[in-house]
C-alpha cells in the first residue's frame, strides 16, 4: 500500500505537493481526487489536517457550474449539524453514495458486455441485482419469502394448516 501523499498549505494560500516538490492548484487537487490518490492537506504553520476544508473548497467551486446540491438540500444539511442524528445522517449519506457508485460501476461493466449478450437478459439481470441490493439495504424480504415461510402440507399443497385428523396422514384445512 502506498503512503499518503502530503500537500502543505502555506499562509500565502499556496498548496505545495511534497511528492513532486512543486506548487499545485485546487484543480490539481481535484485531479488527485478523480485519480483516487490518497492525500492529506496539512497547514504548514499549525500542522493541522485541513483536507476537508480543501475538499469543501473544490465542491464550492464545482457548485458554481452545474450544481449537485439544491438550496433546499444544503439548508437541510445545515439543520442536521449538531443534532442527535448527525452521525446517522453521515453514515447514511456515505453508504448511499457507496451504493450509487457501485451501481454506476456495475452499469459500466454491463454496458461493456452488452454487445456480447442479449440486451433483454442483461437489463433483467441488472434490475434483479438492483432490487435485491435495495431490499437488503432496506431490510425488506423478497416477494416469495412469505410463501416459503408457510411451507407445504403433507399432501404437497401449499399454505394450509394441518388438522392432524384423517387416516393415513394429515388433512389440510382450507
Protein described:
49% of the residues lie in helices and 11% in strands. It has six helices and six strands. The strands form two sheets. A four-stranded mixed sheet has the order 3-2-1-4. The protein is extended and about 55 Å long. The termini are far apart.
Name the descriptors.
11% strand, 174 residues, four-stranded mixed beta sheet, extended, disordered C terminus
3D shape? extended
Q: Which strand order do you get reading across the main beta sheet? A: 3-2-1-4
Summing up helix and strand content along with how strands pair, one would put the structural category as alpha+beta
Mean pLDDT: 81
Q: Please give the count of helices.
A: 6
Low-confidence stretches: 151-174
Strand content: 5-15%
Helix content: 40-55%
**Rg over C-alpha atoms, rounded to the nearest angstrom:** 27 Å
Question: Distance between termini?
Answer: 64 Å
Quick overview of this protein structure:
With about 170 residues, the protein is α+β, with helices and mostly antiparallel strands. It has helices at about 25-35, 50-65, 70-80, 85-115, 120-140, 145-150; strands at about 5-10, 15, 20-25, 40-45, 160, 170-174.
What secondary-structure arrangement, pairings included, does this model have?
Elements: E1 5-9, E2 15-17, E3 22-24, H1 26-34, E4 39-43, H2 51-63, H3 71-80, H4 86-113, H5 119-138, H6 145-150, E5 161-162, E6 172-173
Parallel strand pairs: 1-4
Antiparallel strand pairs: 1-2, 2-3, 5-6
Helix pairs in contact: 1-2
Amino acid at each position: 500500500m502506498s503512503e499518503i501523499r502530503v500537500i502543505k498549505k502555506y499562509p500565502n494560500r499556496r498548496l505545495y505537493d511534497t511528492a513532486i516538490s512543486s506548487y499545485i492548484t485546487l484543480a490539481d487537487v481535484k485531479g488527485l481526487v478523480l485519480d483516487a490518490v490518497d492525500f492529506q492537506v496539512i497547514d504548514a504553520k499549525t500542522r493541522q489536517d485541513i483536507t476537508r476544508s480543501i475538499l469543501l473548497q473544490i465542491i464550492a467551486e464545482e457548485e458554481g457550474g452545474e450544481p449537485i446540491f439544491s438550496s433546499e438540500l444544503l439548508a437541510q444539511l445545515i439543520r442536521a449539524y449538531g443534532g442527535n442524528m448527525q452521525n446517522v445522517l453521515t453514515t447514511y449519506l456515505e453508504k448511499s453514495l457507496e451504493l450509487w457508485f457501485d451501481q454506476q460501476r456495475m452499469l459500466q461493466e454491463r454496458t461493456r458486455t452488452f454487445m456480447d449478450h442479449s440486451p433483454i437478459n442483461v437489463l433483467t439481470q441488472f434490475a434483479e441485482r438492483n432490487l435485491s441490493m435495495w431490499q437488503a439495504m432496506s431490510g425488506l424480504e423478497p416477494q416469495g419469502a412469505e410463501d416459503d415461510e408457510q411451507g407445504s402440507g403433507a399432501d404437497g399443497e401449499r399454505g394450509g394448516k394441518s388438522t392432524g385428523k384423517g387416516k393415513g396422514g394429515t388433512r389440510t384445512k382450507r
